[in-house]
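Supplementary Note 3. Input sequence used for the single-chain structure prediction.
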Amino acid sequence: MNDIKTMLKNAMILFVITLVAGVLLGFVYQVTKEPIAYQNELAQTKANQEVFADAKSFEDIELNEEEALKAVEGYSKIEIVSVKKAMDEAGTLLGYVIQVSSGGYGDDIVFTMGITNDGVLNGISIISINETPGLGMNAEKVLVPQFLSKTILGSFDVVKTTPASDSQIEAISGATITSKAITNGVNVGVTYWNNVLKGGQ
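The predicted structure, written as discrete structure tokens, is reproduced below.
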């Protein structure tokens, strides 16, 4: 009998602890939800402006799901997250900002890329990256500058030596997976632009 009472008492204590923990987690979630969303929005806005400094506003446009799936064919762990129009003060379309998520060595790498109406890749801006310190985390310093002001003629290739052409991207030393993740992500964005956005939507 005492054993049953002890079991019931322990079960009740465990239930109360679980209930309190659940309530506290729910409270913390509610308190932090808006600040986190606000920070994510700030990061997105900053990334948009970095790849389209001349734009005054960015307008979401509907993603063509069928073409987005076609663009990632042949690649793994890559997704087109969103597409925005980049517009000047008068509302004239300057080009597009494409947000891409690509599976890296450690986690998904999320970045934006800006492409002008005349087919120039303004550059890329990394929103989220969690690669190996000292290797893949050097993407901001090593890879990002290589995509600046590139005329889109085709896809980009990762090389381990000094690039011999504008279509070649030099890999981060010791971080080929990260280098290919970002470069392949850019190629997916370029394919989508060519098939859907080129010439204005």
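The longest helix spans residues 2-51. Residues 50-197 form one domain.
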